[in-house]
Structure formats: C-alpha cells, structure tokens
Amino acid sequence: MSSERRVRIGVVGLGYWGPNIARNVAENPRAELAWLCDRSADTLAAAAARHPQARTTGSYEELLDDPELDAVAIVTPVSTHYDLAAAALEAGKHVLVEKPLAASSAQAADLIALAAERSLVLLPGHTFLYSPPVLKVKQLLDEGALGEIYFISLSRVNLGLHQPDVSVVWDLAPHDLSILSFWLGGMPTEVSAFSRSCVLPETPDVAFVNLRFGAGVVAHLELSWLSPVKLRRTSIVGSEKMVVYDDTSNEPIRIFDAGAELPTPETFGEFRLTYRTGDIVSPKIAAAEPLALEIDDFCAAILDDTETRSSPRLGFEVVRAVEAIEASLQNGGRPCSTEERAELESAAAGLDRDTLTAARSRAR
C-alpha cells in the first residue's frame, strides 16, 4: 500500500451499481473506502461483509459529519442526485455522482457553480468515457482513419431494469450522448424522438431518437428496457472506413475497409456506384475496467489538481440534451433545437434560482 495520502471516500447507495463503485474504491491504491451508506439494513449488512474496513450507516448526515471524509460517490436514483450532491458540496466534500448529473439542467448548473465556489471536484459518472474501446474509436476519428463521418447508428437495449423515477431516455441516453460528444467534439444541435410506455403508464420504456450534429453528422439512437437480447452496438460509417463497436463482444472494435464510391462518369448520363469490400481488422484493446479508470481520474483530480475527463460541463450538456429529447417527445416528435433550449434556460435562470436555493436548504 502506498504511503502517500489517499482520498477517503464514502459510497452512498449500494443497490445495483453502488457495489461496483465500492469495490473499485477499495481496490484503488490512492483511495480508501471509508464509509458505506444505504437506507436498507440488509443491503448495508451485505456490503459491510465484503468491506469490513469501512464504517456503515443508514444516515447520510452522519457520513457527511465525518471531518476526515474527503469525498462521496452518489449512486442513488436520479431524483435524489441534486439534494445529495448539494449537501455534500455544502459540507466541503468532493463529489462523484452517477449519470445523469441531476434531474434538470438548472440543477446541474447549480451544482457546478456550488463546486466551483468551494474549489471542489464534481465528477459526473459517465463511465464509458474511460472505456478502452471508446478511446480507440476516438483515436481513429482524431487520426481521420474513417474519412468524413456520414452517420452513426446506436442500439442500447435489454430486458430491464425499469427505473422507478425516470424514463428509458433519462436512464440510457446519457451513456450514448456522452460517448458521441467525446467522439464528435460536441452535443447535437437538433434532436427528435418518439417513445412508448408499454409496461408502466406514463413511463416510456422504448424510444427512438434522431440526432443532428453541427458537422453534418446524423445519428440514430435506439433505447429500450424491453428487448429479448442485450445489445450495446454502435456502427460508424465514414467515407473511407466503417467501424462497429460492440461492448458485449470479445472483439469490441472491428474496422471494415468498406464503402461506396461514385467514379467520374465516362459518358453523359452515366451513373454507376462502385462498392469496396476489403479487410476487417479487430485491433487489440487493453483489458482495463472503465470504472477503475474513472476512480483513478477522480482521485487524481483531488490529489493532483488535474482536470477530469468526465467534466462537470459535459454532465450539464448531457442533461440539457436529454431535456431537448423530452421536449421533442412531448411535442409529438417535432425536432427540438438544443441551441434554442439554451436560450430559454438562460431566460429562466432567475426564476429557477429560488427553487434551487430552497432545494439546497432542504439538502442541508
């Protein structure tokens, strides 16, 4: 064990994803798993058996009252993110909060301002930004290996888990929005979407989302909690090459030397496409757990004053893009400009401030 200072972290919420956070914190040489917090006594007891070195509590306030605690990782339902993160920041703790950062862009902006005022690290848990296959695709795009990017098709579907407080869009879309922003250098400028609530009334569990980016790239996103198979597949089509990224495959990246070309016509009126099918290459991808790299990034930001890859700004932009998708859903699939939403948010910021201040007071 390193003798250098370690970040003492408390994990709040030990249901589906929390145990993975706790395990990676415990295994990180620059971190110490100091606290485990959950309202369920049975869940807490099970986590304590795996991590006997950590203190346990069902009281979030008790955890925050520990003056030696440096940071908290919040792994709770989306509707609780703002109150819990605001309370932690008010208590002087660094915060890692699972995606999405908050339940609204106004809340996300307030958390960012609160962290900045206190010089605290705020990391939204967009774990796929630390995924080696995602990083490999980013490298290919930055090198121009695929040529001009025409379109991207993404499928993120499985059977469950239905969330009690958010739609399938809020649950799954942040993953792909963060990945696309990382790859393409920004969020979509326009979105449109359709959805259906198949199982729970008023809770969409399937959605089809169209995204338009400033560089002319278009993308289609399929989201569902009701699929007979689990798919985490993305196809990127470029003018030179194509890539399939499948997060569930033993070969997560496959590069296709394939495409269509329109040669110069030899005679008037001639129109003939030529199709190219060449080699398929599956590059070697490092075997590293993205969540472990995310915890590394969080600790480095606290101890070394570095910038996190999953930035607060990205967390805010993801939430704003999800809100634009929701706006399109509420308007029968009509396209919604994310730039127009930004202007509306700026105009409404003063009205939201009183609400957020009251929420922050409740969080104390």
Question: What's a quick, concise take on this entry?
Answer:
By secondary structure, the protein is of the alpha/beta class.
Describe this protein's structure.
The chain has 364 residues and is an alpha/beta fold. The chain has helices at residues 18-27, 41-50, 60-64, 81-90, 105-117, 132-143, 168-184, 290-304, 312-330, 338-363; strands at 7-12, 31-37, 55-57, 71-74, 94-98, 122-125, 149-159, 190-196, 206-212, 218-224, 226-238, 242-246, 253-261, 274-281, 336-337. The strands form 2 sheets. It has a 9-stranded mixed beta sheet with strand order 14-13-12-11-7-10-9-8-15. It has a 6-stranded parallel beta sheet with strand order 3-2-1-4-5-6, with helices on both faces. Helix 4 crosses helix 10 (338-363) and helix 5 packs antiparallel against helix 9. The radius of gyration is 22 Å and the shape is globular. The model is unreliable at 347-351 and 359-364 (pLDDT under 50).
The CATH architecture name of the domain at 129-281 reads: 2-Layer Sandwich
Which parts are unreliable, with pLDDT below 50 for 5 consecutive residues or more? 347-351, 359-364
Strand content: 25-35%
Distance between the termini: 36 Å
- Give the count of helical stretches: 10
Structural classification? alpha/beta
CATH structural class of the domain at 129-281? Alpha Beta
CATH superfamily membership of the domain at 129-281:
Dihydrodipicolinate Reductase, domain 2
- Compute the CA-based radius of gyration: 22 Å
* CATH fold annotation of the domain at 129-281: Dihydrodipicolinate Reductase, domain 2
Largest sheet, described in full? 9 strands, mixed
The percent of residues in helical segments reads: 25-40%
Envelope shape: globular
State the total count of DSSP E strands: 15
The average pLDDT value, as a whole number, equals 91
Order of helices and strands: EHEHEHEHEHEHEHEEEEEEEHHEH
Strand order of the largest sheet: 14-13-12-11-7-10-9-8-15
